[in-house]
Amino acid sequence: MQRHRIAALLMAEKPIENIIIKGWVRTKRDAKKFSFIEVNDGSCLKNVQIVVDETVPGYSEIKKITTGSALTVKGSMIPSQGIGQKWELQAAHVEIISLAPENFPLQKKRHTDEYLRTIAHLRPRTNKYGSIFRIRSELSWAVHQFFRERGFRYIHTPVITGSDCEGAGELFRVTTLNPPIPMKSKQKIDYSKDFFGTESNLTVSGQLSAEMFALSLGDVYTFGPTFRAENSNTSRHVAEFWMIEPEMAFCDLAGNMDMGEQFIKHLVRFAMDNCAEDLDLFARFVDKNLTKTLENIIYSDFERIPYFAAVEILLRSKETFAFELVPGADLQSEHERYLTEKYFRKPLIIYDYPKTIKPFYMRLNEDEDTVAAMDILVPRIGELVGGSQREERLDVLEKRMAAAGLSKESYWWYLDSRRFGTVPHSGFGLGFERLLMLITGVSNIRDVIPFPRTPGNIDF
Ligand code: 4AD
Ligand code: MG
Questions:
Q1: Quick one: 6 exposed, middle or buried, by C-beta within 10 A (0-12, 13-18, 19+)?
Q2: What residues are in contact with ligand 1 under a 6 Å CB criterion?
Q3: What does the alpha-carbon distance between residue 230 and residue 334 come to, in Å, rounded to a whole number?
Q4: Burial of 122 (0-12, 13-18, 19+ CB in 10 A)
Q5: pLDDT, tens digit, for every residue of 244-295?
Q6: Is the dihedral of CA 172, 178, 180, 184 positive or negative?
Q7: Of 7, 86, 150, 277, which residue is least crowded by CB atoms under 10 Å?
Q8: C-alpha 185 to ligand 1 mean position (Å)
Q9: Cα 371 to averaged position of ligand 2 atoms, centre (Å)
Q10: What is the pTM of this model?
Protein backbone atom coordinates (compact mmCIF):
# COMPACT_ATOMS: atom_id res chain seq x y z
CA MET A 1 0.00 0.00 0.00
CA GLN A 2 1.11 3.55 -0.77
CA ARG A 3 2.51 5.46 2.21
CA HIS A 4 3.40 9.10 2.73
CA ARG A 5 6.82 10.00 4.11
CA ILE A 6 6.82 12.35 7.07
CA ALA A 7 9.55 14.61 5.62
CA ALA A 8 7.27 15.52 2.72
CA LEU A 9 4.13 15.86 4.83
CA LEU A 10 5.71 18.31 7.26
CA MET A 11 6.45 20.64 4.39
CA ALA A 12 2.76 20.82 3.46
CA GLU A 13 1.35 24.23 2.55
CA LYS A 14 -2.24 23.35 3.34
CA PRO A 15 -4.17 20.61 5.17
CA ILE A 16 -4.21 17.19 3.43
CA GLU A 17 -6.77 14.43 3.83
CA ASN A 18 -6.45 10.67 3.48
CA ILE A 19 -2.87 10.37 4.65
CA ILE A 20 -1.25 7.03 5.38
CA ILE A 21 1.98 7.00 7.36
CA LYS A 22 4.00 4.07 8.67
CA GLY A 23 6.68 4.40 11.29
CA TRP A 24 7.94 3.78 14.81
CA VAL A 25 6.67 5.27 18.05
CA ARG A 26 9.08 7.61 19.80
CA THR A 27 6.79 8.62 22.69
CA LYS A 28 3.17 8.59 23.75
CA ARG A 29 1.26 10.81 26.16
CA ASP A 30 -2.26 10.03 27.26
CA ALA A 31 -4.88 12.58 28.24
CA LYS A 32 -8.38 11.66 29.43
CA LYS A 33 -10.07 11.34 26.09
CA PHE A 34 -7.19 11.22 23.66
CA SER A 35 -3.54 10.28 23.18
CA PHE A 36 -0.65 12.01 21.48
CA ILE A 37 1.75 9.66 19.72
CA GLU A 38 5.03 10.89 18.26
CA VAL A 39 5.92 8.79 15.22
CA ASN A 40 9.14 8.85 13.23
CA ASP A 41 9.65 7.08 9.90
CA GLY A 42 13.32 7.89 9.37
CA SER A 43 12.68 10.26 6.48
CA CYS A 44 13.68 13.27 8.59
CA LEU A 45 14.67 14.30 12.06
CA LYS A 46 11.20 15.49 13.01
CA ASN A 47 8.41 13.25 14.24
CA VAL A 48 4.82 13.71 13.28
CA GLN A 49 2.44 14.13 16.17
CA ILE A 50 -0.56 11.83 15.90
CA VAL A 51 -3.70 12.78 17.76
CA VAL A 52 -5.92 9.80 18.53
CA ASP A 53 -9.20 10.46 20.26
CA GLU A 54 -11.40 7.91 21.97
CA THR A 55 -13.71 7.60 18.95
CA VAL A 56 -10.97 5.94 16.91
CA PRO A 57 -11.74 2.19 16.58
CA GLY A 58 -9.81 0.06 19.08
CA TYR A 59 -8.90 3.00 21.30
CA SER A 60 -8.42 0.75 24.35
CA GLU A 61 -5.75 -1.22 22.41
CA ILE A 62 -4.16 1.99 21.11
CA LYS A 63 -3.67 3.12 24.71
CA LYS A 64 -1.33 0.14 25.17
CA ILE A 65 1.03 1.29 22.41
CA THR A 66 4.63 1.45 23.63
CA THR A 67 7.79 3.24 22.57
CA GLY A 68 9.45 1.39 19.71
CA SER A 69 6.21 -0.11 18.35
CA ALA A 70 5.46 0.06 14.63
CA LEU A 71 2.21 1.60 13.37
CA THR A 72 0.21 2.40 10.29
CA VAL A 73 -1.89 5.52 10.77
CA LYS A 74 -4.58 6.86 8.47
CA GLY A 75 -5.99 10.34 8.90
CA SER A 76 -5.71 14.00 7.96
CA MET A 77 -2.90 16.51 8.33
CA ILE A 78 -4.37 19.53 10.08
CA PRO A 79 -2.85 22.66 11.62
CA SER A 80 -1.69 21.78 15.12
CA GLN A 81 -3.38 23.41 18.09
CA GLY A 82 -0.35 22.71 20.26
CA ILE A 83 2.93 24.56 20.17
CA GLY A 84 6.12 23.06 18.77
CA GLN A 85 4.72 21.80 15.50
CA LYS A 86 2.87 23.32 12.56
CA TRP A 87 0.98 20.18 11.57
CA GLU A 88 -0.44 17.19 13.32
CA LEU A 89 -2.08 14.04 12.06
CA GLN A 90 -5.64 13.60 13.24
CA ALA A 91 -5.98 9.81 13.23
CA ALA A 92 -9.05 8.13 11.78
CA HIS A 93 -7.56 4.67 12.08
CA VAL A 94 -4.49 3.20 13.79
CA GLU A 95 -3.17 -0.25 12.99
CA ILE A 96 -0.55 -1.73 15.31
CA ILE A 97 1.93 -3.52 13.02
CA SER A 98 3.89 -4.76 16.00
CA LEU A 99 3.99 -3.91 19.67
CA ALA A 100 7.44 -3.48 21.24
CA PRO A 101 7.82 -4.90 24.74
CA GLU A 102 8.58 -2.58 27.65
CA ASN A 103 12.26 -3.55 27.57
CA PHE A 104 12.85 -1.74 24.25
CA PRO A 105 16.20 -0.10 25.07
CA LEU A 106 15.58 3.32 23.53
CA GLN A 107 13.12 4.78 26.01
CA LYS A 108 12.96 8.56 25.98
CA LYS A 109 16.10 9.66 27.77
CA ARG A 110 19.62 10.57 26.79
CA HIS A 111 21.93 7.67 26.11
CA THR A 112 25.70 7.84 25.88
CA ASP A 113 27.46 7.18 22.59
CA GLU A 114 29.34 4.36 24.31
CA TYR A 115 26.10 2.63 25.28
CA LEU A 116 24.59 3.19 21.85
CA ARG A 117 27.59 1.44 20.26
CA THR A 118 26.56 -1.69 22.15
CA ILE A 119 23.19 -1.51 20.39
CA ALA A 120 24.45 -0.39 16.99
CA HIS A 121 21.53 -2.22 15.37
CA LEU A 122 19.04 0.10 17.09
CA ARG A 123 20.93 3.39 17.30
CA PRO A 124 19.79 4.67 13.87
CA ARG A 125 16.36 4.96 15.54
CA THR A 126 17.63 7.81 17.71
CA ASN A 127 17.61 11.44 16.57
CA LYS A 128 21.38 11.80 16.50
CA TYR A 129 22.17 8.61 14.63
CA GLY A 130 19.26 9.02 12.24
CA SER A 131 20.76 12.39 11.33
CA ILE A 132 24.28 11.01 10.95
CA PHE A 133 23.20 8.32 8.55
CA ARG A 134 20.97 10.61 6.49
CA ILE A 135 23.94 12.99 6.14
CA ARG A 136 26.16 10.05 5.22
CA SER A 137 23.74 9.10 2.45
CA GLU A 138 23.44 12.66 1.14
CA LEU A 139 27.20 13.12 1.07
CA SER A 140 27.67 9.89 -0.88
CA TRP A 141 25.53 11.44 -3.58
CA ALA A 142 27.52 14.66 -3.32
CA VAL A 143 30.73 12.74 -4.02
CA HIS A 144 29.35 11.33 -7.25
CA GLN A 145 27.85 14.69 -8.22
CA PHE A 146 31.17 16.48 -7.77
CA PHE A 147 33.07 14.12 -10.04
CA ARG A 148 30.32 13.69 -12.58
CA GLU A 149 30.08 17.45 -13.08
CA ARG A 150 33.81 17.44 -13.83
CA GLY A 151 33.74 14.58 -16.33
CA PHE A 152 35.30 11.90 -14.10
CA ARG A 153 34.37 8.23 -14.64
CA TYR A 154 33.46 6.02 -11.70
CA ILE A 155 35.60 2.86 -11.55
CA HIS A 156 34.90 -0.21 -9.42
CA THR A 157 38.30 -1.39 -8.29
CA PRO A 158 38.70 -4.86 -6.76
CA VAL A 159 38.20 -5.52 -3.07
CA ILE A 160 40.34 -8.66 -3.16
CA THR A 161 43.84 -8.00 -4.43
CA GLY A 162 47.31 -9.48 -4.66
CA SER A 163 49.12 -6.18 -4.11
CA ASP A 164 49.89 -3.99 -1.11
CA CYS A 165 49.52 -0.43 -2.36
CA GLU A 166 50.62 1.38 0.77
CA GLY A 167 53.35 -1.13 1.66
CA ALA A 168 52.56 -0.75 5.32
CA GLY A 169 51.81 -4.44 5.81
CA GLU A 170 48.41 -3.79 7.37
CA LEU A 171 46.72 -6.48 5.34
CA PHE A 172 43.77 -8.71 6.06
CA ARG A 173 44.58 -12.01 4.42
CA VAL A 174 42.00 -13.64 2.16
CA THR A 175 42.25 -17.41 2.03
CA THR A 176 40.25 -20.59 1.60
CA LEU A 177 42.93 -22.69 3.25
CA ASN A 178 41.75 -24.60 6.31
CA PRO A 179 43.83 -26.29 8.98
CA PRO A 180 46.05 -28.16 8.63
CA ILE A 181 47.51 -25.36 6.46
CA PRO A 182 49.72 -26.82 3.70
CA MET A 183 53.30 -25.70 4.30
CA LYS A 184 56.11 -25.35 1.78
CA SER A 185 58.64 -25.39 4.55
CA LYS A 186 58.35 -24.85 8.30
CA GLN A 187 57.82 -21.10 7.91
CA LYS A 188 56.31 -20.85 4.44
CA ILE A 189 52.65 -21.45 3.65
CA ASP A 190 52.09 -23.22 0.34
CA TYR A 191 49.87 -20.65 -1.36
CA SER A 192 49.77 -22.68 -4.56
CA LYS A 193 47.07 -24.69 -2.76
CA ASP A 194 45.10 -21.52 -1.95
CA PHE A 195 42.15 -20.19 -3.98
CA PHE A 196 44.13 -17.69 -6.06
CA GLY A 197 47.32 -19.71 -6.06
CA THR A 198 49.13 -16.87 -4.34
CA GLU A 199 48.94 -14.65 -1.28
CA SER A 200 45.91 -12.38 -1.44
CA ASN A 201 44.30 -9.80 0.79
CA LEU A 202 41.58 -7.19 1.17
CA THR A 203 42.46 -3.93 -0.51
CA VAL A 204 44.06 -1.06 1.45
CA SER A 205 43.53 1.32 -1.49
CA GLY A 206 42.14 1.14 -5.01
CA GLN A 207 44.82 3.49 -6.28
CA LEU A 208 47.00 1.16 -8.33
CA SER A 209 43.96 -0.07 -10.28
CA ALA A 210 42.58 3.46 -10.56
CA GLU A 211 45.87 4.61 -12.09
CA MET A 212 45.45 2.11 -14.94
CA PHE A 213 42.05 3.61 -15.69
CA ALA A 214 43.19 7.23 -15.38
CA LEU A 215 45.81 6.33 -18.01
CA SER A 216 42.98 5.12 -20.26
CA LEU A 217 39.88 7.19 -19.53
CA GLY A 218 41.51 10.41 -18.37
CA ASP A 219 40.03 11.32 -14.98
CA VAL A 220 38.52 8.62 -12.80
CA TYR A 221 37.58 7.95 -9.18
CA THR A 222 36.78 5.03 -6.94
CA PHE A 223 34.55 5.09 -3.88
CA GLY A 224 34.48 1.89 -1.94
CA PRO A 225 35.31 -0.06 1.17
CA THR A 226 38.93 -0.20 2.26
CA PHE A 227 40.50 -2.45 4.88
CA ARG A 228 43.44 -1.94 7.20
CA ALA A 229 44.54 -4.25 9.95
CA GLU A 230 46.33 -1.53 11.88
CA ASN A 231 46.03 -2.30 15.53
CA SER A 232 45.62 1.31 16.57
CA ASN A 233 42.62 1.79 18.81
CA THR A 234 42.18 5.49 18.16
CA SER A 235 39.10 7.63 17.63
CA ARG A 236 40.14 8.15 13.98
CA HIS A 237 40.90 4.60 12.78
CA VAL A 238 38.63 1.74 11.84
CA ALA A 239 39.57 -1.55 10.20
CA GLU A 240 36.94 -1.10 7.47
CA PHE A 241 36.31 2.35 6.07
CA TRP A 242 35.19 3.98 2.85
CA MET A 243 37.68 5.86 0.75
CA ILE A 244 37.19 8.14 -2.25
CA GLU A 245 40.15 8.07 -4.61
CA PRO A 246 40.28 10.33 -7.66
CA GLU A 247 43.10 9.77 -10.11
CA MET A 248 43.85 12.38 -12.78
CA ALA A 249 45.91 12.00 -15.94
CA PHE A 250 48.16 14.88 -17.05
CA CYS A 251 47.95 16.37 -13.57
CA ASP A 252 50.79 17.50 -11.31
CA LEU A 253 50.97 17.97 -7.55
CA ALA A 254 49.61 21.53 -7.64
CA GLY A 255 46.61 20.40 -9.69
CA ASN A 256 46.08 17.56 -7.23
CA MET A 257 46.04 19.96 -4.29
CA ASP A 258 43.59 22.23 -6.09
CA MET A 259 41.26 19.30 -6.71
CA GLY A 260 41.49 18.15 -3.08
CA GLU A 261 40.69 21.62 -1.78
CA GLN A 262 37.75 22.08 -4.15
CA PHE A 263 36.41 18.63 -3.31
CA ILE A 264 36.41 19.21 0.46
CA LYS A 265 34.80 22.63 0.05
CA HIS A 266 32.13 21.16 -2.23
CA LEU A 267 31.23 18.47 0.30
CA VAL A 268 31.04 20.87 3.24
CA ARG A 269 28.94 23.34 1.26
CA PHE A 270 26.70 20.55 0.04
CA ALA A 271 26.02 19.41 3.60
CA MET A 272 25.23 22.95 4.74
CA ASP A 273 22.88 23.51 1.81
CA ASN A 274 21.16 20.12 1.75
CA CYS A 275 21.26 18.74 5.29
CA ALA A 276 20.44 21.89 7.24
CA GLU A 277 17.91 20.34 9.61
CA ASP A 278 20.11 17.38 10.51
CA LEU A 279 23.26 19.53 10.78
CA ASP A 280 21.51 21.90 13.14
CA LEU A 281 21.22 19.09 15.67
CA PHE A 282 25.03 18.74 15.72
CA ALA A 283 25.60 22.49 15.88
CA ARG A 284 23.33 22.67 18.93
CA PHE A 285 24.12 19.50 20.85
CA VAL A 286 27.47 18.10 19.66
CA ASP A 287 29.80 20.97 18.78
CA LYS A 288 28.83 24.56 19.46
CA ASN A 289 31.57 25.80 17.10
CA LEU A 290 30.49 23.59 14.23
CA THR A 291 29.06 26.27 11.95
CA LYS A 292 32.15 28.43 12.40
CA THR A 293 34.44 25.48 11.66
CA LEU A 294 32.53 24.62 8.50
CA GLU A 295 32.38 28.20 7.26
CA ASN A 296 36.11 28.50 7.88
CA ILE A 297 36.66 25.53 5.57
CA ILE A 298 34.47 26.92 2.82
CA TYR A 299 35.80 30.47 2.90
CA SER A 300 39.52 30.12 3.62
CA ASP A 301 42.30 29.38 1.17
CA PHE A 302 44.00 26.24 2.42
CA GLU A 303 47.56 26.94 3.58
CA ARG A 304 50.24 25.04 1.61
CA ILE A 305 53.68 24.37 3.09
CA PRO A 306 56.45 21.83 2.50
CA TYR A 307 57.05 19.16 5.14
CA PHE A 308 60.31 20.68 6.39
CA ALA A 309 58.67 24.10 6.83
CA ALA A 310 56.01 22.40 8.96
CA VAL A 311 58.72 20.74 11.02
CA GLU A 312 60.40 24.14 11.53
CA ILE A 313 57.17 25.61 12.88
CA LEU A 314 56.69 22.69 15.22
CA LEU A 315 60.25 22.84 16.52
CA ARG A 316 59.91 26.55 17.19
CA SER A 317 56.53 26.24 18.91
CA LYS A 318 56.28 26.39 22.69
CA GLU A 319 53.71 23.58 22.66
CA THR A 320 54.51 20.42 24.62
CA PHE A 321 53.77 17.26 22.70
CA ALA A 322 53.31 13.76 24.06
CA PHE A 323 55.39 12.41 21.19
CA GLU A 324 58.74 13.94 20.40
CA LEU A 325 58.95 15.45 16.95
CA VAL A 326 61.68 13.81 14.92
CA PRO A 327 62.56 15.68 11.70
CA GLY A 328 62.25 13.28 8.80
CA ALA A 329 59.73 11.06 10.60
CA ASP A 330 55.95 10.91 10.28
CA LEU A 331 54.05 13.71 11.99
CA GLN A 332 51.86 12.52 14.84
CA SER A 333 48.24 13.53 14.87
CA GLU A 334 48.89 15.98 17.76
CA HIS A 335 51.48 17.74 15.57
CA GLU A 336 49.08 17.91 12.67
CA ARG A 337 46.30 19.23 14.86
CA TYR A 338 48.54 21.91 16.37
CA LEU A 339 49.40 23.19 12.90
CA THR A 340 45.87 23.32 11.59
CA GLU A 341 44.00 24.25 14.79
CA LYS A 342 46.35 26.58 16.58
CA TYR A 343 48.99 27.81 14.17
CA PHE A 344 47.18 28.35 10.89
CA ARG A 345 43.61 28.03 12.21
CA LYS A 346 42.42 26.67 8.89
CA PRO A 347 42.97 23.65 6.64
CA LEU A 348 46.54 23.03 5.69
CA ILE A 349 48.24 21.09 2.91
CA ILE A 350 51.67 19.70 3.71
CA TYR A 351 53.67 18.57 0.68
CA ASP A 352 57.10 17.24 -0.29
CA TYR A 353 57.56 14.63 2.42
CA PRO A 354 60.78 12.65 2.93
CA LYS A 355 60.73 9.66 0.59
CA THR A 356 61.61 7.30 3.45
CA ILE A 357 58.20 7.68 5.11
CA LYS A 358 56.06 7.47 1.97
CA PRO A 359 55.10 4.61 -0.38
CA PHE A 360 57.03 3.59 -3.50
CA TYR A 361 54.65 5.08 -6.05
CA MET A 362 55.13 8.74 -5.10
CA ARG A 363 57.13 10.86 -7.55
CA LEU A 364 60.72 11.55 -6.53
CA ASN A 365 61.55 15.27 -6.39
CA GLU A 366 64.72 16.76 -7.87
CA ASP A 367 66.39 16.84 -4.47
CA GLU A 368 66.12 13.00 -4.54
CA ASP A 369 65.22 13.06 -0.83
CA THR A 370 61.60 14.12 -0.90
CA VAL A 371 58.58 12.98 -2.89
CA ALA A 372 55.67 14.91 -4.41
CA ALA A 373 53.27 13.85 -1.65
CA MET A 374 50.53 15.94 -0.11
CA ASP A 375 48.37 15.49 2.98
CA ILE A 376 45.41 17.73 3.71
CA LEU A 377 44.92 18.39 7.41
CA VAL A 378 41.78 19.88 8.90
CA PRO A 379 40.92 21.13 12.38
CA ARG A 380 39.68 18.51 14.91
CA ILE A 381 40.61 15.57 12.64
CA GLY A 382 44.18 16.00 11.46
CA GLU A 383 44.78 14.07 8.24
CA LEU A 384 41.71 13.93 6.02
CA VAL A 385 43.39 13.38 2.66
CA GLY A 386 46.59 11.66 1.57
CA GLY A 387 47.80 11.83 -2.02
CA SER A 388 50.66 12.45 -4.42
CA GLN A 389 51.87 12.91 -7.92
CA ARG A 390 52.80 9.42 -9.14
CA GLU A 391 56.23 8.32 -10.30
CA GLU A 392 55.74 8.04 -14.06
CA ARG A 393 59.42 7.39 -14.96
CA LEU A 394 60.02 3.67 -15.32
CA ASP A 395 63.66 3.65 -14.23
CA VAL A 396 63.04 5.75 -11.14
CA LEU A 397 60.00 3.68 -10.21
CA GLU A 398 61.92 0.43 -10.54
CA LYS A 399 64.63 1.73 -8.23
CA ARG A 400 62.07 2.84 -5.65
CA MET A 401 60.36 -0.56 -5.79
CA ALA A 402 63.62 -2.39 -5.35
CA ALA A 403 64.40 -0.19 -2.33
CA ALA A 404 60.96 -1.02 -0.90
CA GLY A 405 61.59 -4.74 -1.42
CA LEU A 406 58.80 -5.11 -4.00
CA SER A 407 59.28 -7.63 -6.79
CA LYS A 408 59.12 -6.40 -10.38
CA GLU A 409 57.44 -9.66 -11.33
CA SER A 410 54.34 -9.23 -9.21
CA TYR A 411 53.86 -5.59 -10.27
CA TRP A 412 54.59 -6.27 -13.97
CA TRP A 413 51.25 -4.81 -15.03
CA TYR A 414 51.80 -1.63 -12.99
CA LEU A 415 55.23 -1.18 -14.54
CA ASP A 416 53.75 -1.73 -18.01
CA SER A 417 51.76 1.49 -17.58
CA ARG A 418 55.12 3.28 -17.38
CA ARG A 419 56.34 1.52 -20.50
CA PHE A 420 53.45 2.27 -22.78
CA GLY A 421 52.47 5.93 -23.02
CA THR A 422 53.37 6.95 -19.51
CA VAL A 423 52.27 10.47 -18.49
CA PRO A 424 52.39 12.62 -15.37
CA HIS A 425 49.39 11.83 -13.19
CA SER A 426 48.21 12.41 -9.66
CA GLY A 427 45.53 11.46 -7.19
CA PHE A 428 44.52 11.29 -3.57
CA GLY A 429 42.42 9.38 -1.08
CA LEU A 430 39.87 10.97 1.22
CA GLY A 431 38.61 8.99 4.20
CA PHE A 432 34.82 9.27 4.05
CA GLU A 433 34.33 8.66 7.79
CA ARG A 434 36.83 11.36 8.70
CA LEU A 435 34.95 13.75 6.43
CA LEU A 436 31.73 12.88 8.28
CA MET A 437 33.43 13.53 11.61
CA LEU A 438 34.51 16.92 10.33
CA ILE A 439 31.06 17.83 9.06
CA THR A 440 29.06 16.61 12.08
CA GLY A 441 31.51 17.43 14.88
CA VAL A 442 31.28 13.80 16.06
CA SER A 443 34.56 12.97 17.78
CA ASN A 444 34.69 9.18 17.43
CA ILE A 445 34.90 7.52 14.03
CA ARG A 446 32.89 4.56 15.36
CA ASP A 447 29.84 6.79 15.45
CA VAL A 448 29.70 7.79 11.77
CA ILE A 449 29.81 4.30 10.22
CA PRO A 450 26.82 1.96 10.54
CA PHE A 451 28.60 -1.04 12.02
CA PRO A 452 32.18 -0.15 12.98
CA ARG A 453 34.94 -2.75 12.74
CA THR A 454 37.80 -2.21 15.20
CA PRO A 455 40.24 -4.58 16.90
CA GLY A 456 38.15 -7.09 18.86
CA ASN A 457 34.81 -5.84 17.53
CA ILE A 458 32.94 -7.68 14.78
CA ASP A 459 29.41 -7.72 16.26
CA PHE A 460 26.43 -6.83 14.10
O1 4AD B 1 46.87 8.39 3.32
P2 4AD B 1 46.32 7.09 2.84
O3 4AD B 1 46.91 5.85 3.41
O4 4AD B 1 46.42 7.14 1.26
C5 4AD B 1 46.23 6.10 0.39
O6 4AD B 1 45.79 5.02 0.67
C7 4AD B 1 46.50 6.48 -1.04
N8 4AD B 1 46.70 5.24 -1.81
C9 4AD B 1 45.35 7.28 -1.56
C10 4AD B 1 45.54 7.73 -2.99
O11 4AD B 1 46.45 8.49 -3.26
N12 4AD B 1 44.70 7.26 -3.89
O13 4AD B 1 44.75 7.05 3.12
C14 4AD B 1 43.91 8.05 2.61
C15 4AD B 1 42.92 8.53 3.65
C16 4AD B 1 43.56 9.12 4.91
O17 4AD B 1 43.95 10.45 4.71
C18 4AD B 1 42.43 8.99 5.90
O19 4AD B 1 41.47 10.02 5.74
C20 4AD B 1 41.76 7.68 5.48
O21 4AD B 1 42.14 7.44 4.15
N22 4AD B 1 42.18 6.55 6.33
C23 4AD B 1 41.43 6.00 7.30
N24 4AD B 1 40.19 6.28 7.72
C25 4AD B 1 39.70 5.52 8.73
N26 4AD B 1 40.36 4.48 9.29
C27 4AD B 1 41.60 4.16 8.90
N28 4AD B 1 42.22 3.12 9.45
C29 4AD B 1 42.19 4.93 7.85
N30 4AD B 1 43.37 4.88 7.20
C31 4AD B 1 43.35 5.87 6.28
MG1 MG C 1 48.16 9.03 4.82
A1: buried
A2: 165-166, 205, 207, 228, 230, 237-238, 241, 243, 245, 383-387, 427-429, 431, 433-434
A3: 19
A4: middle
A5: 999 999 999 999 999 999 999 999 999 999 999 999 999 999 999 999 999 9
A6: negative
A7: 86
A8: 35
A9: 14
A10: 0.97
